[in-house]
Amino acid sequence: MPNTSIDHARIVSLIWGIADDVLRDLYVRGKYRDVILPFTVIRRLDSVLEPTRDAVMNMKAKLDDAGIANQDGPLRAAAGQHFYNTSGFTLKDLRNRANATRLRQDFEAYLDGFSPNVQEIIDNFELRHQLPRLTKADALGSLIEKFLQPDLDLSPNGIDNHGMGTVFEELVRKFNEENNEEAGEHWTPRDAVRLMTRLMFEPVADAIPSGTYRLYDGAMGTGGMLTVAEETLRHLTEPKGKKVSTHLYGQEINAETYAIAKADLILKGDGDAADNIKGGPEYSTLSNDAFAGQEFDFMLSNPPYGKSWKTDQERLGGAKRIIDPRFVVEHNGDPEYSLVTRSSDGQLMFLVNLIAKMKQSTELGSRIASVHNGSSLFTGDAGQGESNIRRWIIENDWLEAIVALPLKMFYNTGIATYVWVLSNRKEERRKGKVQLINATDWFTPLRKNLGEKGVEVTQSDADKVLEAFNAFEAYDDPDHSKVFDGVDFGYTKITVERPLRIAGIDPNRVYSAKEIKQLKEHGVRDESAPPVIRKALPFAATMDPLYGRYEAEVGGRMRVVEYEPDTELRDTEQVPLTEPSGDYADGVEAFFRREVEPYAPDAWIDDSKTKVGYEISFTRHFYKPAPMRTLAEIQADIRALEAETEDLIAEIAGDH
Asked: 3-state SS of 31-43?
């Protein structure tokens, strides 16, 4: 049978019909998936295993007789698949059970006979939890009967592995559309995934040699990103005569979503990949890294946005005690540079997890595509986790580009989203540079919204993004692409202090901390009063008013002193890292002399509080002010309003 989209649609329609026929009065429509998805998997596996059932049973008997405990490998070999069933039953054997209780017992024994990798799928789908309800309503037999109907041929003779995977993915998509509020959490639209994979692969497609490549997704959802990435890589390399094989790896915390991903891979005949993905509630990527110390060639992710990771933070030891080498690194001379974000949003932590898995020793290194919302660009003050992550990425020169996607791209949110493209093997022309691509108006409207999703990025839309990316600085459209030096996004945050001035104090003595506290509580602030001295420095100290070291007479001798800052007058300033130094030591001093000193001559910089931060503002770089209205247009509006007012007055006068 040819595996065309028409055949796939027919099979999906038949399976969808089973849900309506058997489950309509048992489940609300949004819960059909809890039964239909695992049953689809089981029916396919059942039909694949049928020809080797006797060989598996014979092997099982031999292994048991020999007392061999580790039976998985030999049983897979006997089945000729990456999975098997040792129950002795097939679904056809169960269809004739007249007694509902006996059917349930035999069906449970049938489920128990599956190999451990399939057990994991069954457990994460929680299929056994559905059996009491199905049995009570006498629906289990009907389900089995419907899945065995002759026109629904899920055997390899009826549909090949790739086609079966397509059918399963289409079922998942339809269920996700039914549950719009959930869809976006675990399902990234295919058009977004295709764009991400193109950005990851196409710039280096010619440089990818024949060989084996490892692909990884740390928030894999239903696994669609990995499978599309695999297809994209094959599509790009096969025409060039290259022999490329891939190994897929991923991690997913949501049990059902993980079950879907694992099932999809097994249904496609990719049992090795199914063994390489880890998931379920105990497998949170941030606190339980299933691939610690491993490296991957290509990585992509759509991590959760704005979702608390407080539980993970506590498992890692708490915000201040995290020592995981992914999140506490050495950077800029700091051996404990923290990449730990606020617990309210862990999306950038997922990006850090990908970076930690970059290949260091290969010629191609690693490439990453990760999609985030706008907060990842600018949240977090200088020195905080989010800003530290941006600084770490840009100062290590890993960030190639950020692409602003159109609004209404995702199923459960219409917010702005951005694809970050990273590489630890930048081509020469990109070194030290970051490209921002504004693709917000490169989209095609959908005829009908899918949840919040109202637009798609078609191939021609994606072509425009890739054209801008590949042209880089030669792209002549500043409304859609701009190239910056990485340092352009950095700034120094300085704390500007002014001295505490209290009426009646002695300007020639040092006040203790206790005395200063009392002055603050009971003294009267007076701008004309002398500053309060809190510390006299050693005699060898040198004066530096810029950083709060002044000369004053203390106890009859000239000393270098520090004044007590007045917290009510404290201020902060952001000085661009690119601020020119001019006639001064650096840009910070130049900024201070120009912007602060003329207005507050007694101010100084508290150097102990100085921090470097990074933020990326698409709005600032691509903002287009609305054109000013002409005077003639404004005058015309005023005249129209005057005429309308006169008409109303005339009407009122006429009524009287």
From this structure: HCHHHHHHHHHHH
Residue 218: helix, strand or coil by DSSP? coil
Is 388 within 8 Å of 166 (Cβ atoms)? Answer: no
Whether residue 76 contacts residue 83, with contact meaning beta carbons closer than 8 Å, is answered with yes
> What letter does residue 303 receive in the DSSP assignment?
P
The residue type of 16 is W
CA distance linking residue 314 with residue 647, whole number of Å? 70
pLDDT tens readout for residues 18-41: 988 899 888 888 788 899 999 999
Tokens of 10: 């027919």
In sequence order, the 6+-apart residues with CB closer than 8 A to the CB of 473 are 429, 433, 483
Q: Evaluate if residue 586 carries a pLDDT over 70.
A: yes
Cα–Cα distance between 378 and 373 in angstroms, integer?
Answer: 10
Distance, CA of 36 to CA of 87 (rounded, Å): 22
Reduced to 3 states (helix: H, G, I; strand: E, B; else coil), residue 536 is strand
Are the C-beta atoms of residues 347 and 209 closer than 8 Å to each other?
no
The span from the CA of 496 to the CA of 482, in Å, is: 34
CB 303 within 8 A of CB 219: yes
Counting Cα atoms < 13 Å in the Cβ hemisphere of 74 gives: 16
| C-alpha torsion angle, residues 305, 306, 311, 312 (rounded to 10) | 40
For the residues of 506-530, what is the DSSP string, one character each?
Answer: -TTSBPPHHHHHHHHHHS-B-TTSP
Burial label, 497 (beta-carbon count in 10 A; 0-12, 13-18, 19+): buried
Q: What angle do CA 221, 301, 4 make, to 5 degrees?
A: 60
Amino acid letter for position 610: T
Short-list 355, 423, 465, CA closest to 200: 423
Summarised one tens digit per residue, pLDDT across range 100-117 is 888 999 999 999 999 999
**Chain position carrying tokens 């065995």:** 148
User: Minimum mean pLDDT among 79-88, 258-267, 372-381, 433-442: which range?
Assistant: 258-267
Q: What value does the CA radius of gyration of the chain take, rounded to a whole number of Å?
A: 33
Closest CA to 498 of 523, 522, 525, 518: 525
| Residue 600 burial by Cβ neighbours in a 10 Å radius (0-12, 13-18, 19+) | middle
Between 177 and 197, the higher pLDDT residue: 197
Cα torsion 402, 405, 407, 411: sign: negative
How far, in Å, CA of 294 to CA of 299, rounded? 12
| 261 three-state secondary structure | helix
pLDDT given for residue 186 in this prediction: 46
Q: 524-535: b or e for each residue (b if 16 or more CB lie within 10 Å)?
A: eeeeebbbbbbe
Pair of tokens at residue 495: 């704390």
Q: Is the dihedral of CA 448, 453, 455, 460 positive or negative?
A: negative
